Amino acid sequence: MNKDIVIIGGGAAGIFAALAAKQSHPELSVVVLEKTAVLLSKVKVSGGGRCNVTHSCFDPQLLVKNYPRGEKELLGPFHRFQPRDTIEWFESRSVKLKTESDGRMFPITDTSSTIIECLLSEARKLGVEILLRQRVEKIDSGFTVHLKDQPPLNCNHLILASGSSPEGYAFAVSLGHTIVPPVPSLFTFNVPTSPLKELSGISVDLATVEVGPFAQTGPLLITHFGFSGPAILKLSAWGARFLHEKNYRTPFSINWIPNHSQEEVFQKLLLLKEQFPQKALFALNPFYFPKNLWKALLPFDKTLANVSKKELQELAQKLHADTYQMEGKTTHKEEFVTCGGVSLKEVDFKTLQSKICPGLYFAGEILNIDGVTGGFNFQNAWTTGYIAGMSV
After folding, report:
1. CA-wise closest residue to 217 among 202, 234, 203
2. What distance, in Å, lies between the first and last C-alpha atoms of the chain?
3. What is the pLDDT of residues 75-106, one digit of tens each?
């Protein structure tokens, strides 16, 4: 059977590539092959089932700063299709998005099914053929796609949008590409020895977390297994390879008061000792911590008159570099992101076409591109899918 364009993968990037291809070339036959029985599975679970569609960052120069891998390569593509274009695309199809205080954007319905229905309705309208439970066994260099228990498909153009699936990587390798070994990104830190585990659910608005040469500042959440929150998730993305090499067992430190130097913290504690010698530091809580956290961080429970300068100096040091031991990771909800994939040097980012195999295109997470949490990974899928589809 002959098709003009075959797309492997029925996720966000694959479906969006199909829509872009069919919209720009309505005369071409476009078929999407999905190995499972479900389309857009990551869209369904993203953002706790609400679908974090994109992020309200409209300057490509700033937008690319949210991609530990792909920053340089995505600059050009984001000048062609960025979050503003994503918003317009959905709104022109009667799906309005809203922006939350942290910049994340969701459908106003607060349900991912709104996004899924919009994409699939558009696919039906444009005449995109979607085949489920299609097991691709191999792809010949002339783009003959061999399917299990089905006749092979011949196509002129092939788009690989198979996410982090090992089969997708294998197809890319068989067509001459190099795979940067995949490792997890966007995960939380397991700290079994943490004395703060009993405070699960408590968060601080701002903390700096450091591991090896990497540091990230942002909200931090204490969990029953260790630590989570934006600061940890961003750190796991930027430090993905470093943490993998350490087998997710390494010391890290938390600066609980990143807006003040260690010396400023010490001087403030000294001043309190002079002003309120009969009070306990716990009662004063000068840095406005949640009370139970402040109590847990204090190494003493006595009046300031009985606290030595050395003890205050040690406390200032602890608040600035509180050390913990990471002993593993936990996937952040159902949102699993991979660092690694098709080497970016082998792809032309003007078209998303392979530099090695003409007629082969890539979209989404199969590329060695990943973003931090907040809608950036979906924006990569929309942008690369759009450009690959338009370029075919």
Report:
1. 234
2. 19
3. 999 999 999 999 999 999 999 999 999 999 99
Q: What residues contact 59, with CB distance under 8 A and at least 6 apart?
A: none
pLDDT at 141: 87
**pLDDT above 90: percentage of residues in the chain:** 96
Per-residue pLDDT for 391 more than 70?
yes
Burial class (CB in 10 A: 0-12, 13-18, 19+), 348: exposed
Contact 357, 351 (CB under 8 A): no
In sequence order, which ranges of 276-308 are alpha helices (DSSP H)?
281-284, 291-297
Cβ-contact 157, 4 below 8 angstroms: yes
Are 235 and 211 in contact by the 8 Å Cβ rule? The answer is yes
Closest to 232 (Cα-Cα) out of 101, 324, 315? 324
If we measure between CA atoms, which residue out of 68, 20, 63 comes closest to residue 352? 20
Q: Is residue 359 within 8 Å of 179, Cβ to Cβ?
A: no
Q: Which fold has domain 2-184+338-391?
A: FAD/NAD(P)-binding domain (3.50.50)
Do 11 and 381 touch, CB atoms closer than 8 A? yes
Q: What is the pLDDT of residue 336?
A: 67
The mean predicted confidence, pLDDT, of the chain is 96
Strand partners, 217: 208
Every domain of the chain and the residues it spans: 2-184+338-391, 187-331
Average pLDDT over residues 268-291: 96
CA distance 74 to 103: 20
Helix (H, G, I), strand (E, B) or coil at 280: strand
Q: Which amino acid is at 348?
A: D
Alpha helices by DSSP H, 25-97: 41-49, 60-63, 71-80, 83-91
Please determine, for residue 116, whether its predicted confidence score (pLDDT) is greater than 70.
yes
* 0.85 surpassed by pTM: yes
User: CA-CA distance, 141 to 205, in Å (whole number)?
Assistant: 53
What is the rounded distance in angstroms from the CA atom of residue 186 to the CA atom of residue 333?
A: 10
Please answer whether residues 209 and 348 qualify as being in contact, where contact means their C-beta atoms are separated by less than 8 angstroms: no
pLDDT bin (cut points 50, 70, 90) of residue 263 is very high
Q: Is the pLDDT of residue 335 over 70?
A: no
With a CB cutoff of 8 Å and minimum separation 6, the contacts of 68 are: 185, 237, 238, 240, 339, 370, 371, 372
